[in-house]
Amino acid sequence: MKQKQGFGSSLMKMMTNTAFKLDSLLSEDIKQNELMYIFGQEIQNVDSFLQLKETFIWFSYRANIQYEGKALSDQGWGCLIRVGQMIVANSLIRDNSNLKLNDLKTKIISLFDDNEYFSTKAPFSIQQIIKKASLIYNLKIGDWYTGPKIMCLLEELFLSAKTIKQLKIINFLEQCIIEQQIDLQFKQPQLLVIHAIIGNKELDQYFVAELKKHMQVPQFAGAIVGKSKKAYFLIGYQNNQGIIMDPHYVQESNLIQLNSQLKCSPLKQFSGTIALCYYISSSQDYVQFKTALKELKGSIFSIIDETCTCFF
Hints:
The protein is α+β, with helices and mostly antiparallel strands. The chain has eight helices and 16 strands. Helix 3 packs across helix 6 and helix 5 packs across helix 6.
């Protein structure tokens, strides 16, 4: 029998969603006819923006998740899980054009389905993540995750997952890309995740400028960022405003959400702990990626090649 959460949880859900809507009202609007960069693409008009926005996949907190005979919510502790899921989902949708867009999005979203009837088959559902986190990190329900932990968990889950297309996640925890960990033949697309610490508690003017340059790289697939002990999915920027997907909204676990919610937040307000993601589809793509990085001169991370030479 399906369990339901109690009145206290419903009250917290209402408060969280009210705060989400208030924050949306107070946030600066995206100027759809002005220059912006999203997922490494230069966007300059409303049609291009709306067309790209249709492809986005947004995940957020869920209520009444069925797990081991109980109903639970990840509200208050699962934002990094949802950001990690968004990184993977929006990477999977790249280069996929064989299906109609909504069919493709539905198929990808099903890989993350929290619905009790599908969660055991969905390789990246929160139930599967919770189980793997318990085994590897001894994390319990309600424990906070870190960027490295959620992305390493997703890397582990990918090893046994059958998805729309193969994708290999590679985490780099030392603020540099080590080429020996990459399949330079690119038999499958690879998602490179570089965990870094830049600046101090908040980003200063220098690192805001450098972060913007890193978001202009065509292979940019988003970033994990945080402020006020909350995690967000940074997908691009306009002027000095970061364009984010915010997971701090509570939906029911059985709801399929095809529309994405975008917000703006000043880049300078984000903390210096970040994870930059780049989707590399081929050897040629990787050469282009390295060429773009060379111009950035290692301001946030560097590359160590196969001869153990550090450059940039």
